[in-house]
Specification:
A 5-stranded mixed sheet has the order 1-5-3-4-2. The protein has a two-stranded antiparallel ribbon with strand order 6-7. The chain has helices spanning 25-38, 59-68, 82-95, 101-114, 119-126, 130-139, 144-151, 157-163, 169-182, 186-201, 245-262; strands at residues 5-8, 12-14, 44-48, 53-57, 72-77, 223-225, 232-234. The chain contains 11 helices and 7 strands. Strand 3 and strand 4 form a beta hairpin. It is an alpha/beta fold. The protein folds into 2 domains: 1-97, Conserved hypothetical protein from pyrococcus furiosus pfu- 392566-001, ParB domain, CATH 3.90.1530; 157-199 and 220-264, no CATH class.
Length: 264
């Protein structure tokens, strides 16, 4: 029979390997208010030894209880290997207040490195697909700007996943900026990625001898008209400027006037 013990907060130690690296303040406030009214309804899972009691699952409940001034919380002592306890942490966090995509990615990478697990093994342990695990780990190598935008909810995971396939940092950041400011569709972003990969694979030394004009340029990139002069430009060369609606109109009017004056 599972034994529930009430343990003082001062005797509980957060795990050094807590998998929730980012704390959503709104979620913490909401949980704190719930605990203030109803108490801690779900016990924390802890690992007890002679020197301390370590929290395995329930770190958010611990923080919320501490915030509202509780002296102790209900806990269930458990046993297991480090790998087993890590798997418990993941399951507990995914089914309660979900881990962010970045936290999941960091945890999967940690499990792969520390326990020498393959992505297929991690997927089986946590009940997810291998592709799910692989895509999250790949995100960690997508660059700080994408991770920051994902963390701040400026882009969703699907957008971040697609942009991570762009090897050129300059292009990747250009596409990211457009996705954040203009909300580019997944279809558009996938087209950018496709064109970027084609550019990466293009080798001028392997270009065939000129036998006449080619109907399809080898490195053709998607184009869009400039908002001011309406001349076509490659998507990768778009420049961004943060302006208010009034200044936006003024700039376009000024450019239009200049173009009119310079016309023959």
């Amino acid at each position: 029979m599972t034994q529930i013990k009430y343990i003082k907060l001062e005797n509980l130690t957060p795990s050094d390997e807590n998998i929730r690296f980012t704390i959503d303040q709104d979620q913490l406030d909401e949980l704190s208010e719930s605990i203030r009214r109803l108490g801690v309804l779900e016990p924390l899972l802890v690992l007890q030894n002679k020197s301390h009691t370590k929290i395995i699952a329930g770190h958010m409940r611990y923080l919320a209880a501490k915030k509202v001034g509780l002296a102790s919380v209900p806990c269930i002592p458990i046993q297991g290997s480090e790998k087993e306890l890590t798997v418990i942490q993941i399951h507990e966090n995914i089914k309660r207040i979900p881990l962010s995509h970045i936290d999941q990615a960091t945890t999967f990478a940690f499990m792969r490195e520390k326990y020498n697990l393959k992505e297929e093994q991690i997927a089986k342990l946590i009940g997810k697909s291998t592709a799910y695990v692989s895509q999250h780990i790949t995100i960690l190598n997508s660059g700080d700007n994408i991770l920051l935008a994902l963390s701040n909810n400026q882009i969703n995971f699907t957008v971040a996943r697609e942009l991570s396939h762009v090897k050129d940092p300059l292009k990747r950041n250009t596409y990211l900026s457009y996705a954040v400011t203009s909300g580019a569709s997944i279809g558009t972003i996938q087209q950018w990625v496709k064109e970027s990969k084609r550019d990466d694979d293009y080798d001028p030394e392997q270009e065939p001898l000129d036998t006449g004009p080619s109907p399809i340029p080898i490195t053709q990139q998607p184009e869009t008209p400039c908002d001011c002069c309406q001349n076509p430009m490659k998507t990768a060369s778009i420049h961004f400027l943060r302006v208010c609606p009034r200044c936006d109109i003024s700039i376009k009017d000024a450019v239009s006037s200049t173009n009119t004056d310079s016309s023959p």
